[in-house]
């Protein structure tokens, strides 16, 4: 093996021995194109080709290429379809808008677009709190629709105490002894005072209604009493009151009239003073107001052992005044 190699080398050197010697730098100057080089510098080199063994046959390789291309197309279609599904907007059709509502509350109007499901959710989103009596129109459970109007009404309730004037009534007394057209003012009347407790309802700060809870008369009104002559007139359809003829006596609250057990108070507990009239309550009920000419106004608020039937007893502050009245037959006008 060594001898053959040496022989090969000698033969190669003999083939190039006739060429002129060149410097190493000239031999290595490869920047000059081969067509500019001297033909004498060309060296033919034998290139040994190495055969690479084929992994696939031509038919299998072609099939793999086609399959790879098909898979690539399918992958592109899938990715494109997914992106289109996310970003697609139909041509000529706008994206859906949220419904718009108008809220009227506390004197202000608020317009907004909302994703809330019902009226109550809209108010919660706006931080609008409802009191126990507040109302909404429509109700909080109403579903939201476009252009829905929502009204919040603030409702309040309170109690108010007020003292008010109690107007007197006019009472006309018939006097058959006086001619028709005769009129005499017996009492001009006087306003009373009534204390009323109201329940007041308010809507949005303004009173909407009120109702009376309790009522107490602090001062009784005095009726306007007019005496009218009715001689010769018929009583059919008349607005006057006719008198009742009765026998009237008088007393005072002291022991001279009421005995040693006199307390100064009547059988009903009222203080015995001018205006108190003792009656037979089977004829005139207790509490009945009356007018007696010559005495004035009185109220049935006492009883007496001797007061029976058509008889009354008038109270005076003193015994002397009671004696001056004595015993009289009078016209008694019952006002109640």
* Count of individual helical segments: 6
* Highest-level CATH class of one domain: Mainly Beta
Which regions have little confidence, pLDDT < 50, spanning 5+ residues?
1-10, 22-47
Q: How many beta-strand runs?
A: 16
Element pattern in H and E: HHHEEHEEEEEEEEEHEEEEHE
Report Rg.
Answer: 64 Å
Describe this protein with a few key phrases.
single chain, 336 residues, alpha+beta, Ubiquitin-like (UB roll), Resuscitation-promoting factor rpfb fold, Barwin-like endoglucanases, six-stranded mixed β-barrel, four-stranded mixed sheet, 35% strand
Question: Helix and strand layout, with pairings?
Answer:
Layout: H1 2-15, H2 24-27, H3 58-87, E1 100-105, E2 108-113, H4 119-125, E3 135-137, E4 148-153, E5 155-166, E6 170-179, E7 183-187, E8 192-203, E9 206-219, E10 224-231, E11 244-251, H5 255-258, E12 276-278, E13 289-292, E14 296-302, E15 311-315, H6 319-325, E16 328-334
Task: Give a quick summary of the entry.
The protein has six helices and 16 strands.
Structure, described:
The chain is 20% helix and 35% strand. Among the domains are: 100-153, Ubiquitin-like (UB roll), CATH 3.10.20; 158-224, Single Sheet (Resuscitation-promoting factor rpfb fold), CATH 2.20.230.10; 243-334, Barwin-like endoglucanases, CATH 2.40.40.10. It is rod-shaped, with a radius of gyration of 64 Å. The strands form 4 sheets. The chain has a 6-stranded mixed barrel with strand order 11-15-12-14-13-16. A 4-stranded mixed β-sheet has the order 2-1-4-3, with no helix packed on it. A 3-stranded antiparallel β-sheet has the order 5-8-9, with no helix packed on it. The chain starts with a helix and ends with a strand. It has 336 residues and is of the alpha+beta class. Residues 1-10 and 22-47 have low confidence and may be disordered.
